[in-house]
Write a structure and sequence with these properties.
Length: about 425
């Protein structure tokens, strides 16, 4: 029995049927850098990077060695009735890299959804309020509580009863927030500085400043979800820094890139007064936790990842390579405006905005047929999303560019 047949029988045949229209369902057996290798001996260029987790590419040597060293040192995985030193070191370094100043705590969890849920629990508890404001089009996770922050009904079809529908109000335009917050009934505003699944919509510095002021004036916590955008993806330690925000929120959520995809690890950074107001209650010091939260192996890899990120961001010209790649993609939009409306980029994150969902879908299929892995934006189906490694090779970039150029040229002839 082959791998595909075994997978179909024992794992998830519906996933194979979902992939079937792409024409080929590869069985990946090895990965390295910006490439995946399948069981047929073919090489695939990866512009998905495990949905953003592989910031440094697959199996970066520095992160591999950190994990191997942690195992060799026989570090305790957790410390149920004690602490581990690496967690404290990681917390200190994150606060410093994000330029937060004094007065912050960091708590390590396992997944991004756990971090989001932890942030909401803190906000509801310390404010005594029972409602949340969330921006439409966002994606904060697939657990029942995080799905309540998603305004797209598709994500919860069939189990609506598990997702509370009366505690979250959605807004689209940040200018509407001051009026909404004036009611004094909201515990928190949660927002992504850049909505990747919604086609790269950004929250600029002025908008962030207005939200900060409105939250301060109404006693509302400001939660920023940097799970996808943080720690290098946008060319800085956070998208907030990359976008030039002059303010700081009350809670910051991190995950994905921090451990290079090798270990599940998420971080919940909270201003100390709010953190202590939650954990200082009797019996609640570790109420936000799960079996593998605070994993010491993850701490060790995260520390190596932060050092690697620092070295990378300080490498002259490295981010300029991503800017150059973005410029090449933008040139395609200039040449083929009937198909490609434009390209928006921030660091190692690129969005190709096609004129129609069909044009985006066609390009996605062509890229897959040429063994280039990309993904479409679920909340903006006319947009193709590229999530490359910081070290994405010229060979990978050229291959993707050439396929897109070919598709646009062919389709441009048809629409004349």
């Amino acid at each position: 029995m082959g791998a595909l047949e075994t997978y179909s029988r024992y794992v998830n045949d519906d996933w194979l049927q979902t992939l079937a229209p792409l024409g080929e369902v590869p069985v990946f057996i090895r990965a390295g850098g910006d490439r995946l290798h399948d069981s047929q001996g073919d090489e695939w260029f990866d512009f998905i990077g495990h949905y953003g987790a592989m910031l440094f590419g697959h199996h970066h040597p520095a992160l591999q060695q950190a994990l191997i060293a942690a195992l060799a040192d026989e570090l305790p995985i957790g410390a149920p009735l004690g602490i581990t030193a690496h967690g404290a070191t990681l917390a200190q370094q994150l606060v410093e890299k994000l330029a937060l100043g004094d007065g912050w705590n960091n708590w390590t969890l396992t997944t991004g959804a756990e971090a989001v849920e932890g942030a909401l629990k803190i906000a509801l508890t310390v404010t005594g309020r029972q409602k949340i404001l969330a921006r439409a089009g966002a994606f904060h996770g697939l657990s029942s509580l995080t799905l309540a922050l998603n305004n797209m009904p598709f994500w919860r079809q069939g189990y609506e009863a598990l997702v509370p529908d009366d505690g979250v109000t959605f807004f689209d335009d940040p200018q509407d927030l001051p009026a909404l917050l004036a009611s004094g009934e909201y515990a928190a505003v949660i927002i992504e500085p850049l909505q990747a699944i919604a086609g790269g919509r950004r929250l600029d510095a002025a908008q962030a400043g207005a939200i900060r002021l409105a939250c301060t004036n109404t006693g509302t916590l400001f939660i920023v979800d940097e799970i996808f955008t943080g720690l290098g993806r946008c060319g800085d330690y956070s998208a907030m820094q990359a976008l030039g925000w002059a303010i700081r929120p009350d809670i910051i959520l991190l995950a994905k890139t921090l451990t290079g995809g090798l270990m599940p690890s998420a971080q919940l950074l909270v201003k100390q007064p709010f953190f202590h107001a939650f954990t200082g209650r009797p019996g609640c010091a570790k109420l936000i936790a799960s079996t593998f939260s605070g994993n010491n192996l993850g701490h060790q890899v995260a520390l190596a990842s932060l050092q690697l990120l620092t070295d990378t961001l300080e490498t002259p010209g490295l981010m300029a390579r991503h800017d150059h790649f973005s410029s090449r993609l933008q040139a395609l939009a200039v040449r083929y405006p009937r198909l490609l409306q434009g390209v928006s980029s921030l660091g190692a994150l690129h969005f190709l905005h096609f004129t129609t969902p069909d044009a985006a879908q066609l390009s996605w299929h062509y890229l897959h047929a040429n063994k280039i892995l990309t993904t479409l934006c679920a909340h903006q189906p006319a947009t193709l999303k590229l999530i490359p490694s910081l070290f994405q090779s010229d060979e990978a970039n050229d291959a993707l560019y050439n396929v897109l150029d070919y598709v646009c040229e062919e389709e441009n002839e048809h629409v004349r």
